Amino acid sequence: MFLQGRTTPKLGLDLAGGTTVTLTAKTERGKNPPASQMDQAIKIINQRVNGLGVSDAEVAKQGSNNIVVNVPGEGQSRVVGLIGTTAKLQFRQVFAVTDGRPIQLKGATPDKGAKPSASPSATPSSSVSASPSATPRGRALSGALALPTPLASPSATTKPSGKPSASPSATPSATPTQAPPTLAELKQELALPAGVSDDVVRQFATQSCYGTDRRAAGSNDPNRAWVVSCDQQEESGAFRKYILGPVAVHGEEVASADAIAPNAQNGTASWSVALKFKHKGADQFAKVTGDAYKAASGSPQRQVAIVLDGQVVSAPSIDNGAIAGGTASIYGSADSFTQTYASDLANVLKYGALPLEFKQSSIDEVSSTLGSDQLRGGLIAGAIGLVLVVLYCMLYYRGLGLVAVSSLIVASVITYVSVVILGENVGFRLSLPHIIGLIVSIGITADSFIVYFERLRDELRAGRRLRPSVEAAWKRARRTILVADAVTFIAALVLFFLAVGGVAGFAFAMGLTTLIDVVVVFFFTKPLVTLLSRTSFFGRGHPWSGLDPRKLHKAEPATATARPTGQEA
Q1: Each residue of 294-327: pLDDT tens digit?
Q2: In this structure, which of 145, 300, 361, 471 has its CB flanked by the most CB atoms within 10 Å?
Q3: Which residue segments constitute the domains of the chain, with CATH numbers given?
């Protein structure tokens, strides 16, 4: 808990407030979307923001085309960004790539809205290159795979890192004497297949990837055979734009996605996302990587772009043959591929793409619905219940009640630490239903101690000594404790999976404390009773020990009377 830098639990929406986001579905001509697609979108968004069902996020449908998402906590910009992300994943072969600035065509009107580059000496806007030196993204590599893209210079050497190195002289510098190319000249220079239409080439030339909206028109449409796309994130101060071929693998073919930590032994210095394809997707991925490998060495067609929501996440070069096995890995530089980025990317890919595109109609910060007064009332109620249990144990069990009180304290500490750790690692947030579940668990935990103590007293009433009674009582009590806790845990498990909202939160808290109860009874209460049985205070049955034979009505051993020899009745 202290290693994570947090010592207090996170609070839920009803106790701490949060952020409310209203999403509106985008449809043609403003028509209402199909109800089935809206229901599927609600399910996917709920999985994203409430993946484990314990983060207290709420997702509800409002009207026919709106979805309202309530996320607990302040400053939830990261979660808000994930909510409306369509997460449509596509794998497309690259056919052309150059710097993301517009290319001035002969006879075309210059785009006055294009933003100049921060470094004018990098790649002028009129430069065009089909060489890999203009393309190598290197932020992510796919599959088993690819060594860096070869440099344009014949004397260049390949580095063992996943990031290609570009020779400064690889991209030709434009000079003021160069005349703008015509559309046909640009198409010829890019060495595009005959199937690429003039409209796509024209869009590629005019597209700017340096604006606030870098999503090219039609780039997220899987039905388009040829699309123009921009990099999702800049690298080395530059964005690149691409002409991509037909979709080779759809995101629906991804079976799982997991964020993987850096591993220096495997040569990965940054976080990555490991993908596993379904059977059909594995075959498709092997085919597209095989087709890319057949392209000429150094050609952009050697690259396969990983496109997320119409933007290129990475475009690795396939230099070691087709990638079979049904796996792929997306990773990049440590600056851009952080733990947060990798975890978010894996999260949206894991649960699939939304069936509709949404726009964020409104984002509002909301206050708590219950506030500190209700939280204080819940804590007071829990404290009163705990005090009553302690008083009962001390009055009825006396010295043995100290064992129960100590066990309750240990269970409370473990529960508190668990809530804090779960909040930091899986987004668990303490809401009023959780608090109710924790309060109810006080009685469940105390019940386990009472079962053991009563079994121990039964053994003493039968005339056995304390030490053997401790073990004999434990053998009888542990079965009862395990059965009782198993029934409670199964009930909590059923409620957690079948219920939603507050009931699921109550079930989670009750299941957590039931597991903690088993741990405390087996590894603290029983060993403590064993140690105390060796002391004179408990071993000799002191009146205040709670194990006094006279108080327990222990029967005295009967003594036999010898009959006189030879005496007759």
Answers
A1: 998 888 999 999 898 888 988 888 888 888 888 8
A2: 300
A3: 13-86 (3.30.70.3400), 89-105+181-350 (3.30.1360.200), 368-552 (1.20.1640.10)
